[in-house]
Amino acid sequence: MARNGLNSSSSRGEEFTKSKINKENLQKISELLKYLKPYQGKFALGMVFLLLSSLTGLAFPALIKVMVDVAQGIKPDYGMPNSVNTIGYLAFAILFVQAFVSFFRIRLFVEVAEKALADIRRDTYFRMITLPMNFFANRRVGELNSRISADLSQIQDTLTTTLAEMIRQIVLLIGGISILIMVSGKLTLFNLSILPIIVVAGVFFGKAIRKISRQAQDKLAESNTIVEETLQGISNVKAFVNESFEANRYDKSLREVVKIAVRGSNYRGGFASFIIFCLFGAIMGVIWYGSILVQQGGLSVGDLLAYMLYSVFVGAAMGSFPELYANVQKALGASERVLEILKEENEPISINSNDNEIKDIIHGNLSFQNIHFSYPSRKDIVVLDGVSFEAKAGEKVAVVGPSGAGKSTIASLILGFYHAQRGEILFDGKPFKDFALTDIRNQVAIVPQDVILFGGTINENIAYGKLTASDEEIAEAAKKANAHLFITGFPEGYETVVGERGVKLSGGQRQRIAIARALLKNPAILILDEATSSLDSESERLVQEALEVLMKDRTSIIIAHRLSTIREADQIIVLDKGKIVEKGNHKELLQNPEGLYKHLSALQFEV
């Protein structure tokens, strides 16, 4: 049941959450409206066209009234023409003006909204990818992608459609009611007398319907969870011959959905019947009472017709407000989530960085001095506890130890993905904080165990190490990485598309492309994070040869499970539970019969 509850929440979370329209939330969304400032001239012009479009729309019932009155021989007021043909020509002229201004109103609003949203998307995306790693550790990729796509699309719809439509309907509502009062105050009072009844009924039925809809969504989510769990564990279902049990469980859940839906239909049916009675009753009442006024001479036929048309305008405007209001609430909710990202403190990286130009050169000397570190999401667990070591320029330093000892954390600290709570990391004797973060990352390369490539071509993936690299430089890096041969074996060669995350390539091929990418970057410090641990023997040999080329004349931090790959390391650091328990080269560490390195070697049949 706990699992079902979680999935129900998840299911509802995929919908747009609404925020209350109040002063505080409107101030929040106003922070996004600053993106309209560069386009305020076009936005203002669009607003002018919007008002013109709405006002010309209000003119048509008046023209129809005059046309009917003139046809009956009643002389029009306000200097209007007394010819039916002239009034008809005037109506078409106004219609042409309305069509003209409507086109430019839509054109301008869409242009302004699209450009403003593009700016928001750009800033949100850049802010997102420059946030510290801890931010991503606590969020799902789908959730973050939803901020860029779904949330901003909701804001876009509000800016392009909802905002304009709301202003338009307000103009029609205020203008329509004003004209209704001018045409006939008695009929208007008669119309407005039933409004409070409809509003009260709408509030009552609306709350009941929303409550039942949420219950139905929860129950449906539970039934969907049963399907999802059953299909994911279909082998268990079949092995325990529980097909009938699962089918009955699903059927029981669906019956609950049906029961709730039927209860909801009672409210919906009652509300629909009430609205139909009130709506058509109001129309019938207006025509009835209006006809009496026409008989008494207090109203012309044209006035009654105009009144009916303006009533439709007012009714349509009032009917559109609940949906428009809900859309604004959704936009407020979406804005809050986008602003959460825009307000997060990001890493000091500029969107206008000049081709990753390096200001402070690192020669390769690296020093950890009494580093204490815990991940921000797990502050009670000490990952590194007083770690100190030194790697001189050009040296190979291996880091070994059991799983969870803190080996990969060292790589994350070197790259500045996280920062130590105590202690200092030095590059060439200077503290980490004295360097620009971009300078450090531009001069440190990592070849991870699980290489993830982008979905483009091999050429693009290798060039990611140096965006300005020529085809000759890319090919040279691939040759050094033992990758050129298999790349040219593909029909498309370097233009071969690797597929999402590089799925079209084998593990060894992906590793060699990652090595080529690192070679092209030409880093001062190289991190190999278990780069050969998941490869077969032949792939490991080819990758190891490429790694030897990559490690030549540069500081290398080798994080390894396979101790056979680090025998030639200048220094081996043995980590256990976040502490350095041994240091030395391969021969020195093997001479300690009680040492952890000796024990790990024995487990891997290295002795």
From TrEMBL:
Transmembrane segments: 43-67, 87-106, 166-183, 189-209, 271-292, 304-321
Location in the cell: Cell membrane
UniProt entry tagged with the keyword Membrane: yes
Entry GO terms, CC: plasma membrane
CDD domains: ABC_6TM_bac_exporter_ABCB8_10_like (cd18576), ABC_MTABC3_MDL1_MDL2 (cd03249)
GO MF terms held by the record: ABC-type oligopeptide transporter activity; ATP binding; ATP hydrolysis activity
PANTHER family: ATP-BINDING CASSETTE SUB-FAMILY B MEMBER 10, MITOCHONDRIAL (PTHR43394:SF1), ATP-DEPENDENT PERMEASE MDL1, MITOCHONDRIAL (PTHR43394)
Protein name, UniProt field: Multidrug ABC transporter ATP-binding protein
Organism: Pedobacter psychrophilus
Lineage: Bacteria, Pseudomonadati, Bacteroidota, Sphingobacteriia, Sphingobacteriales
